[in-house]
Amino acid sequence: MDIGLGRIGSEIRSCVSGIRDPGPTSFPQHTKSPPRERKSVLSLEIVLASASPRRKELLSLIFSDFRIVPSDFDESEVPGNLSPSKHVLHSAMMKARDVARKCPDALVIGADTVVVVGESILGKPADADQAGQMLRLLSGRTHQVYTGVALIHGAKELSGFECTDVVFSKLTDEVICRYAASGEPLDKAGAYAIQGRGSVLISSISGCYPNVVGLPLHKLGTLLKEFGIELLIEE
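The structure corresponding to this sequence follows.
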């Protein structure tokens, strides 16, 4: 059928003129949820209550700015009847409290580490001879490393601990004497440094590596959240 173009155009204009303009379309507005309140790390002074270079190095992995104020707490004052976990928790808290009195506005972090083999709690050796005795105890055995962490800010105090299993290879007397004489064991709990030459003495570990070095970062991060500080979140 032949339909003229003029008629088609007339019908299209008629249809278009009958359509009403609905006006601007309204879309629902999605508003941003207000951010969860948290303390800015930059607005809170962080103080490490330890002179340990290992703890300083570990803490610098998560905080770019902090101050070191060594504690004057005497570790020999820890009661000898405490379990390893309570031992490190007590010592860490005493260190943190000592420094918190000097830095009342800061968030103070205290820590203490011991090595446990059998029923014996090993601290730092007094000399190379004692270091050798400790290494002989550890040789060819699995032992535990406990580190307690305590945080104080104002009236709020929190603490926790971590435990890691460490397996030593069988050590010869020659290796023990050489390592003890190197000087590295003298300021280390259990008379060895897993992050140093002592690493060659260790066949395996099970658990938190930074805990063995002296500061369990995962446990620390968990405690920091309780103070409103969350790591790895954009400011």
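The beta strands are 46-48, 67-68, 107-117, 120-122, 142-153, 156-168, 202-206.
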